[in-house]
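Sequence in, structure out. First:
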Amino acid sequence: MLYFLHFRFDPMTLCLYRDAVQVPLRPKVAQLLAYFLTHPNQVVARETLLSSLWQHGEFRETALTQSITELRQALSDSPQNPTFIKTIPQQGYLWICPVEQPHSKSLISHVTKLGKKATILLTAVGLTAIVSTVSLYFLSAPKPVSSKASVTLPTLIIPPMANETGVQANAWWGYALEAALRQQLQSSYHLVPKSQYPELSDSDKTKKLTLSLKPLQQRFLLTASLASERTELIVEQLDENFTAIAMQVITQLALKTEAIDMAPFNRGMRDYYRGVQALNEQGPKLAKAYFEAAVMQMPDHIESQLELAQICWWLGDIQSAHKQFEHISLSTASIATQARYHLYYGEFLKATGQAQQALQQAKLALDVAQQSQQVELIASAYQLQADAYWSLQRWDEYKQAMNSAHVLVGSRSFAYSEAQRSFYLANPPAAGPIEKTLLNLEKSKPVLAQAITYYQQTAQKLSLIKALFAYGQNYLVPVSESEPSLLNALELAQQGGYHHLEMQVLTYLGFFYIQLHQGEKALDYLKQITPEPRFVPSYEQQQLLIGMAQMDIALQTGDEEAMQSAILQYQALLKSDDISVVTQANVKLLLSWTLIKAGELESAEQLSLEAMQAYQTLQLQEVETYALYTQMYIHLLNGEPQQALDIISSQQHPSSHLLLLYGAVAADMAKEEALQQDFSDKLTELENSQLLQLQLQQLRQQSRIDKRFIAELIDAPYSVYCQSKWTIN
């Protein structure tokens, strides 16, 4: 046995005991503990732990980080004031607790060998085992995201207080009371993150501390319930007494046995919590006034300053946001607040097109979030990293960051942020090789539907807007549901003054109606957007979609004016100095399609070639395929079937509908019967290919295949600038 403080660890069985009670550990966490106990008072580098316990696998870094977190939680250790595991910045970890070593050296040798043996076994199982183990550990409902509850602490959810006073303004007191309760209970319970409330609110296996406030003559009655326990408290007035009331609730429901700290109260906190309520339920403009009042009374209150900085850029005041973020000092901020600062600032920098600076903030956020042991913060930091890597076209790192976020919180992390990437050519769904698309539409759909119902019931407008927006972007949701969901999100954003969200919803609505080939309607929404070139990514996206809407009108109706407008819009984008390389390639491809319709095949061919070369450099394989079959189509129109066949022959696994369709047409024109049959058979194997097969049959009935018949009977490459024919129901 190895002994340290009131723990003992059996390295033969990898069992940990606290006094006489066994503490459950995952095998990998137990191996990690064994390594630390046999290397006490040594700074152990992360790479050393990875090479000893996680030799292979894409999720090594995330698995180690989470295992460190789990081990600390099992030992009730604090990263800020450690008793056992101390983080040495830029170096690794140090086991600082004295360990009573066993007399037999062979025992230590056994521990070391056991770790290596487990690593070999893990390698044999491979990447799938890592994903399955970690994902199941975190995602199996109704287990909480963090392992803390399953190891040492009971799980507790504190839903928003039910404000039954008839006065919406009184709801701020519930936010304050909940915060006070969470502050006092965080060391005694695993407190479920608010983002998990919709999923766990109806679970019978999760303890819930429910609160309701009702008027009682000139006073208020607070009812607090936990399982079968219930208490009622008279609240004389809704002011700073929420801290004292929280302590009474904790005492009367026996939620905590140790002494409760009474934190000093600052009256400015009343305005801070009113701001929190306003931001969630009413809108950023009202919230801004409250946070400003809070800062007036508490000049050093970092949380109020941070919310003000975020609200400024949400409202489009970029200059004020810059000043706010730069003014904030983190010297006295809590670990969680530091993480939120870097996340907020990183989101702002990303929105203004400063991807490299956003990445720096994401890395700082991750470092601090890991110290906080709050899984939601860690996952958010990984998501911000992924966003920055996306913008920088660093696909492998993007994939790793997305995988790390997914391992921690599953499809919940992608419900809103990754839905933003569902734009087709405006923002390709697969940035990099096609398998890097990690959004699971099937899983996120019920999660979002559940969230919408929950947020509607709890009057959390901001969260409701985001859930409605993401639900409307899910391709598996039928148009009869997605359209009203998007329009509802827009209406709520406009009513609440959530300007930044409103611009995002308007932008997506433009794309949404382009998918439905309703270009005029798309333009109506896109023209409601107030252009803000300093929000670089969204601005270029809006401008691109305006061109797509005009192109849609031209392609559907043959409107010459709309066609010229689209061409001019695309050309103006190509002349812009700030356009990203991805958007530039997309514009060239879209412009080539417009020129095909206009009959300017030579210019169209050159543009599609340039787009293809850019996609190859960027490793954007999916949209590279669009450029390839665009060139094939141009060759077919020019009566050059062999050049078209050369293009498809260069593809190892041609599985695109139009690649195979054009390949079959080219083979038919070149009298290559065997090749024509091969392409036709492969096309038949693809889902939703019946219309294209019918086109082939009609074409073969012609005595001679020429440009006119190809243009009339065969889908052009621009028929898929949205996927309505084949994947949108």
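Second:
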Amino acid sequence: MQQQYEGYKKLVDSLKSASALLNLDHKSQLHQDIITICNHLVNPSFRIAVFGPFNHGKSTLLNAMLGNRTLPIDLIPTTGASITVNYGSDVRTRIMLVDGTEIYRNGTEILQQFAILDGNRQMRKDVASVEVFCPHPFLETGVEFLDLPGTNDRDEQDNLVREQLLSADLVIQLLDARKLMTLGERENLRDWLLDRGIKTVIFVANFLNLLEPDEQKQVQNRLLFVAESFRAELPPGFSNLYRVDALPALRARLKGDVAAANSSGLAAFETALQNIVGILQPNSGSVRLPRVEAIASQIQHSLKAKIDPIVIELKSFDNKQNSKIEIKQKAANLIYKGFTTSVGELRDWLALPKLLTKYQADAAVALAENNFKAWQTNILKKDLTQLQLAAIKWLYQAYEFFQEERPQDLLIPFPHQPQVILPPKPSSTDDLSEPGSIAVGGGIGWLLGGPVGAAVVGSISYLLNKNIQKQDEQLAKESYHQDVAKLCITAIEDYLSNFSKQGLSILNEYEQKSDKVICFEVSQEPVEFTNKRENLQQLQNGFNQLLRELEKVKILSNHQPYKEIPKYSNTKIKYSPQPKRVKISPEKDPDVKQQQENTAKNTGTRVESVSTSPPKASPSPRPEEVEAKFRDWELNEEIAQMKAEMRSSKACRQTSPGFKTGKQQHTTQSNKAPTQPKTQTEKDKITRAYSILGLPANASLAEVKQAYRTLVKKWHPDLFVNQPQLQKQAQEKMHLVNEAYTILSEK
């Protein structure tokens, strides 16, 4: 049996831990019940409590069973404390005071001082417990009696009785046959016993001897009804109703009158009681655990009442935080996508083969005509600036959105203007018979004057578009102006090679630094919520531990354990959409190395896979270029929309506890038809706008955007650069489309 009680220690610890988590008032009923049941679970004694209203003869019945006047009895309510009766070799009393003082006395006379009500019928405040030791064979078997104060007298006494009933393995409820089962007794039976899992109850009717024979028969029938209506959980074959005339039984015992004791009902009751205890005592856990179940259920409901609101609050907070992070992640990914696209375009433009293809011919001609500086400013610098700004704008978008490190401007300098040293002039410089020597312009170059200078310009175009290396010696004989043309071509190639190499190097470094701009920091959560998480973890751990211990003793619960909460890391985290880059030296970078090799191999006479010199006028953009511009516009619009969502989300949090996230707001707006305007003028504008976009009047915002996207791709003015009439028509059409989109998107 001792092992059984040892096994309850973990359950007791769980109950106490859960009680501590609830921060219960020490005077609260639940706290008192928890302390009582915990102490009772590890008590090896089998406790029998005598319970009933005052003056029902509880102490008299116990004295009769003990065979002497051990306990105080009187005609007025006397028992002012719960008195525990244990086995002892002789009769003695121990009083424990609240301050820790212990008082031992032989006999029980000291009870008159500490265990009865005072003149004002009040219990003593300084008494913690009263214990009487008595040499009785029934007590020697590990049984202890508990004499409780009478109920229905004072609230203070009722509270004490209610608390102590939890610690009784068997309850003897004494009934007064003269006023059987009053309303107060029925309420106590329900509230103090049944609802708290106390069902090992025996009813004992007292004072039946004071009634007339006819009345006794009626009362006995009523007693049977009471006993049958209460489903006591006693061993099979035993009744839960007995008659004992307590005072005659005590007198018979004091006189040693066995016949009188038998006629009082005491002997039959004692025999049944000893047999019931003999069966229940070895497995007292089956008696105590239903009380534990009732208390544990209250604890679990109280814990859930604390846990669930915290879970809801933290979930709401996490959803809001995750929504903000998702918006920022999406923005970072979009910005990074736009940045890498722009950088890729600039890198592709800086590749030496592309530079040579696009600019070598015009640059060499400009050099020959002494217009290189103007060409560099008006053509090369203009193209470079446009590509640089396209890349830089994404970093400024990121800085505006995330407020991390301020971006630096991307500055790619130009090499020094190429210098050409003329070879010695031949004796005759007017031989212009070589192929390709026809002048392409009337200007006189800074290198040579007259027709020879013009011939140099013409030879540049000829040499860049003809392969003369495989001609025979005679055809390959070069004149002076061809030598000069080759020098110009070589000088420009060196210039563009240096420009490409330096530009790619600067661009790589610039891209490396971008990861400090296109990123954001997930900040630490407020201390308030960190504390809530810790508190929630403790509460859920206590709840789950109690569930596990209840399962071990086969107490089933309707509650499910809470899932383990992942450990929350409250450290600052940087989010960056960019992969880790590794710097590669030119010697190890195959692209850079190949570029250097190409530069070394190229001469002023020939460039592989080149086209004719580009036209001076800008060509019409191809449809894919317009598509690229539109994608760029879409990215800008989406980022601007996310900024608006972030501002809206912040404003909602400041004004309303139950706000929708920006994403939710946008979804709602996208899926519902625009609201109707108030004035007829506004109605006409909207109807016309739908008509311009080719949409029905009830089209959603998503449909409006799609229609706008389609029309932009069809009527973009850049598609008609070389067709003035169509370009003017496209501009007018786009003006109407833009106006219609603005009206419908702002509804």
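Remark: The CA atoms of residues 388 and 411 lie 8 Å apart.
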